[in-house]
Amino acid sequence: MMATVATSVELSVCPSRLWTALKDGPNFMPKAAPFFWSKWEVLEGDPNTIGSLLLLTFNPAARGDLQIKVKVADFSDEEMYITYESLLESDPLYKQMRVTISVDPASDGSKSMATWSVFYEPVGDQGPPSKESRQLLLKRMEQYLLSHDDYLQTVPTMNEPSS
């Protein structure tokens, strides 16, 4: 039976910058959370196309030598969310898992409300990924973006055409 947990955290990063980083998951996620992931590889397609396949390699300290194949199950650039679904043979703790990461503007617009939702079916009595780990992942994304110049939006000058 599938269960759902969700964690929302306000981040001091503008929504468009956070979303730009999340769309670059294979480059961004291992840099923002190296304690959790060693590498994300695109096996087929691109990271923002439904049906694309990725291989997520976890940091051995986080989950041993685990690698999980996921597919992009849903994606919306306009609504700023992406859903990854693990392939059945991938995760020994879960029969099924879908993770949706979404970004919304926070109350003042200069901050983001990031939500990490997990839909899962455990193996045995395994519980959900911990709320603390989901919060930590979101906060590490924020920390990375606040301490690096990656994914900054460029504003065209008067003489430059906007893209």
From TrEMBL:
InterPro entries: Bet_v_I/MLP (IPR000916), Plant_def-hormone_signal (IPR050279), START-like_dom_sf (IPR023393). GO terms for molecular function: abscisic acid binding; protein phosphatase inhibitor activity; signaling receptor activity. GO terms for cellular component: cytoplasm; nucleus. Residues 1-148 form the Bet v I/Major latex protein domain. One of its GO terms (biological process) is defense response. It holds the Pfam family Bet_v_1. Transmembrane segments: none annotated. Gene3D superfamilies: 3.30.530.20. Belongs to the BetVI family. This is Bet v I/Major latex protein domain-containing protein. It comes from Marchantia polymorpha subsp. ruderalis.
